[in-house]
Amino acid sequence: MLRIVVCVSGGGTNLQAIMDAERQGRITNTEMIAVISNNAKAKALERAAARNIPGIVMSPKGYPDREAFNAAFTEKMRELAPDLIVLAGFLVRIPPQMVAEFSNRIVNIHPSLIPSFCGVGYYGLKVHEKVLERGVKVTGATVHFVNEGMDEGPIIAQKAVYVEEGDTPETLQRRVMEQAEWVLLPKAIDDIANGRIAVRDGRAVSC
Ligand code: GRF
């Protein structure tokens, strides 16, 4: 049974997709032990509570400096002892010591086809604004392992989504969520929980 902790910051639609997939049997062999949010008002925490998943609020704002937060956040994660940490719209940088301790056991969903439109400053709606500004015809989402870089870890899976005439950042974000994020993340978790993903020579491979 894969113990999972999900980290969130906002609406929690990706968290909802994971919980629904578990309930419908599209994710097996997992146990969601907690949801951690840096935002006490995150709707994601309400979604977790509705499924009786313990919610924990931890924000850098609650600590004298980032180092103190990183130490406390990493200590909390050690206590929870997950097999997999899932970043589902989590907007706080993962502490380097957590990346090291949970090497290849942290996954993130990013709303673009990495390496396009990712890295510092590319999150949430901003990603889709830049996609429309550049005029690309195809975007999508990527689920990847988290390493010490920003959106640079081994790519587990990607899914393309067409940009449509008249798209706004909001309509495009919604389509990328519906057609890509909410499909990719549950599938990746199920694959990891059932031993179908490995990392070899820095690449995520099916096994
Ligand atoms: C969305 O922009 C999603 O693309 C990204 O995080 C944001 C919030 O997602 N992964 P959620 O509704 O909180 O899952």
User: What does the average pLDDT come to?
Assistant: 98
Strand percentage lies at 15-25%
Any ligands, ions or cofactors bound here, and which?
5-O-phosphono-beta-D-ribofuranosylamine
Question: Total helix count?
Answer: 6
Biggest β-sheet strands, sense, barrel: 7 strands, mixed
Which percent bin holds the helix content? 25-40%
End-to-end CA span: 19 Å
Write the H/E string, N to C: EHEHEHEHEHEEHEE
| Strand arrangement, major sheet | 3-2-1-4-5-6-7
Extended strand count: 9
Low-confidence stretches: none
Write structural notes for this entry.
With 207 residues, the protein is of the alpha/beta class. The protein has helices spanning 13-23, 43-50, 66-80, 96-101, 125-134, 169-193, and strands at residues 2-8, 30-37, 55-57, 84-87, 106-110, 138-145, 155-162, 197-200, 203-206. A hairpin with a 2-residue loop joins strand 8 (197-200) and strand 9. The chain binds 5-O-phosphono-beta-D-ribofuranosylamine.
Fold blueprint:
Elements: E1 2-8, H1 13-23, E2 30-37, H2 43-50, E3 55-57, H3 66-80, E4 84-87, H4 96-101, E5 106-110, H5 125-134, E6 138-145, E7 155-162, H6 169-193, E8 197-200, E9 203-206
Parallel strand pairs: 1-2, 1-4, 2-3, 4-5
Antiparallel strand pairs: 5-6, 6-7, 8-9
Helix pairs in contact: 1-6, 5-6
5-O-phosphono-beta-D-ribofuranosylamine (GRF) is lined by residues 8, 10-15, 44, 88-89, 109, 111, 124, 173, 177, 181.
What are the salient characteristics of this protein?
globular, single chain, alpha/beta, 7-stranded mixed beta sheet, 207 residues, two-stranded antiparallel ribbon, 25% strand, 6 helices, binds 5-O-phosphono-beta-D-ribofuranosylamine
